[in-house]
Amino acid sequence: MDLFDHASQKETATLAPLAERMRPTTLSEYLGQEHLTGEGRFLRRALESDQVPSLILWGPPGTGKTTLAQLVARSTGAAFETMSAVLAGVKDIRETVARAQDRWKLNRQRTLLFIDEIHRFNKSQQDALLPHVEKGTVTLIGATTENPSFEVNAALLSRCRVITLRGLEQEELVAVMRRAVADPKGLGGKVTVEDAALEFIADAAGGDARRALTALEAAAAHGGTMVDRKVAEEALQQKLLLYDKGGEEHYNVVSAFIKSMRGSDVDAALYWMTRMLEAGEDPVFIFRRMVIFASEDVGNADPRALGVAVDALRAFQLMGLPEGTLPLTQAVTYLALAPKSNAVIAAYAAVREAVTKEGALPVPLHLRNAPTKLMKSLGYGGGYKYPHNFEGNYVPEDYLPDALRARCFYTPTRNGFEAELSERYEALQHQLAARREARDGREPGEDG
Q: What positions does the domain AAA+ ATPase occupy (predicted)?
């Protein structure tokens, strides 16, 4: 580094926003996330033993994901490479991996690759990372505000440890701002900030430390040497809607939205929907939750509900905003007022439990495919009855493995259209039970 570079760095440090200047440089300066960095906790133990695996940091904005990645690199002595998934491509990944390979060959130095917004990488970009993470050429730390179970492919996810960061509590945000007020890198004690102002800013920040420090800096510039609550309110102009697209309040509002629809309270559902929209939520996220709801909470009580949710999404994609709020509102009102049934999700849970407990049970012989003479001679496909050859296109038959023959996984409700399905289901089960009793040589009803 020459004199000009050094001067440039000093100037950048002076001109950088308060949130950047106050970025922690040691784990002791890092506030919040005690469930990860506290004594005896996973991340602290990993750092102390210098055995940090590849990680996916999942949490709302301003909770310290980038800072945590930098602290990991500094504590392990690894070279720190960073890229944004918004701007980077496969070529950038290959170049970074090549540097990591050279670094290891020449200096035996490991490379930590931090990828911000990793959920924005497409499948081919994630696949390009996979072999190098698997071999340990790079230790990956990906940061995301989205659920990695949905946004990161399973192969890459299985090679990483997912750790969840939470939005900071009010007292933690106040502590972060107090440090910034006193620290020479921050406001250097030149400004007095009243507790009421700090608490107001912390509430408005919604768990986001970066937002809190940015607001503090604006208030200090607005109020001079004294910042009280009135100055903080004027600097922020208005209190922000308490809704962070990735934080705890985000999940609280989404939860209220879903539970209002589930409880058939159309007015409350519309309120929470509008809260999300006005706070800047991506409407597609709301539609995705509604499509899930249509199967999970309405199900076959009104099979049209799923079509309504999907059609509303398609209509929104054609219209965009603001007109797209119309199909969104239409779908919310329909789902909230539809008859409810959770029989679909309950059925899947019951079947999954049976599969997990019983393992891979053999397919009954009469259901097996028999493309060869040998397989036919072994009884594959023997005795199979083709339903379309029988009256009503139905013949009582056992299709489950013998160990599960008497199990019933789907329990339809008596709500809406599912009442009709329930009657048909019971009639079919009755015919099947009669067929089993006849086959087993018992009188119908003998088993109670």
A: 51-168
